[in-house]
Design brief:
The chain is of the alpha+beta class and 155 residues long. It has one domain. The protein has 5 helices and 4 strands, in the order βαββααβαα.
Amino acid sequence: MSVSTAPSSGTAEVGPIEEMGPIDFYAIEFPHQHFSGEALPYFVDLVDRGIVRLLDLVVIAKDNDGTVKRLTVVEAGPNLAVFEGATSGLLDDEDVVAAGEAIAPDSAAVLMVIENRWAAPFAMALRRGGAQLVASARLPVQAILAALDASESKA
């Protein structure tokens, strides 16, 4: 990934790093290449309220034979059309290949890079104080629920 600016269509120009919140990458798989669109209004709301900023979005599909191809957001369906043109160049061909290897045949995936604008003031204060992030992880909800269930059964 290389840093550049992001045009309109749900995105904003990337500011100086000192002003940015944490950046996350997501690869969301859709079995049978079915985009229901059910979650989209929630994401659009987060973007509209400035909670997150979409920096890059790529849609891919993997055929039954394992062939991976990029789709335009319009090809993915009308649900994603609101993000047509949302590209910054952060996601490159290597990201597409890696995501294609991670998803199952007859699936599609939305790859996205977002800035967590809600955390920007906190992140800026840490940077001003000389702190830096040295590790980060996302914990799967299923694992957390299982751990909580296990600790409750021991109590």
